[in-house]
Amino acid sequence: MRAAGGSLPVGTAFHERTLALCESLNYREWSGYYTVSVYEMHHEHEYNAIRNSAALIDISPLFKYRVTGRDATKLVNRVIARDIHKVAVDQVIYCCWCDPQGKVIDDGTITRLGENEYRWTAADPSLRWFQQNTLGLDVTIEDISEQTAALALQGPTSGKLLHAAADANIANLKYFRVTHGKIAGVPVDISRTGYTGDLGFEVWMPWRDAVKVWDALISKGKAFDIHPAGMIALDIARIEAGLILIEVDYISSKKALIESQKYSPAEIGLGKLVDLKKETFVGREALAQEAQQGAERALVGLEINWNEVEALYDKLKMAPQVPSMASRTAVPVYRAGKQIGKATSTTWSPTLKKMIALACVSREHSAHGTTLSMEMTVEAARHTVSAKVVPTPFFNPPRKTAIPVL
To answer: I need a labelling partner for 57 at 20 to 30 A (CA). Which of 50, 203, 303, 373 fits?
Structure first.
């Protein structure tokens, strides 16, 4: 059972396996659950598994809801900014949902499992908000977070591994589609989705049988160099993929303390997920008005000038240092000495051999190729280094969307 606010976290469906493998004993709390930060003492093998072989990541702490009933489709369309009528059965979409002022409450995925059946994932508890929008609708929303376990299997060999381990059609599974089958005799949904920007899948299964699925994937995965991976490696991969994280790159409008902490979809790179051709949805009027004027801020990718970073350390006769972990601490971003935004997620990319960041800046400074500067602290002294605005994702391999996946 998920821990309530302020109480001790509990283990997920895979805890008996992940605990035995977690040599570092380095855990964090994720939505009331114990989550492995890193299995070994350093995350490099786990990160390399995501990019070079196969990584198995426990994502069970996601909030998961099942939406059914005659008006299930109406409810989904009322809440999200995308048009669910364009989504086929067995298709998955990434979407966001807003408050009446057009500010983002949360983002997540919706899988259309039937004409009027959906599985909806969210980072924050969302049941109350969904229920508040059911007025006059014949719809049932169940919180299935504690009945449904989930694993992300990510990396270049993940398709071959699943083909070997699962009784399901993997080879021709398209990007953001779902198929149904069995692993170790357990019924599973397998979606071509993930949070790494690589070839990858997410496997959804009954909580009570989760360990059987874990064991089968680990056993079959040895031939494909599988590694369980924790949140530290995942954080680096998702920044390379240009993927945002709630409470880091933006704040839910439900939790914002001041107006500037609230973001419209366009301000955090989710403008494409807003369909203003839809007749009505929560926040539509505000978003239509913003579309006419243009959003005030924009999410950008920054490539940090490594020569300047080296020079700062060289002045102190030190070798350049970068934190091996991604930083979730916001730092100011400037142009011509004036602060125009902030970098929210920063990391050294082992694959790209570059220092990169996701930043939210004033729209007029967001054009690709613009040179900005970003604060960097070296030996407790604050400096700035130049950073160029570049397109995201920083890393976008063809295999991410390739068919067949083998």
So the answer is: 303
